[in-house]
Amino acid sequence: MQEEVENRTVNLAISTTKLTARTIMKGLRMFLNHCAKSKAKKAVAKDKVPHGKQTVQELIGQNQGVSSIPVAQTELKGFERVAKKYGVDFAIRKDASVDPPRYTVFFKARDEAALTAAYKEYAAQETFNKDRPSVRKALTRLAEMVAPTPKKVREKSQERAL
Question: Which of these, 93, 92, 96, 95, lies nearest to 84 by C-alpha position?
Answer without folding.
Answer: 92
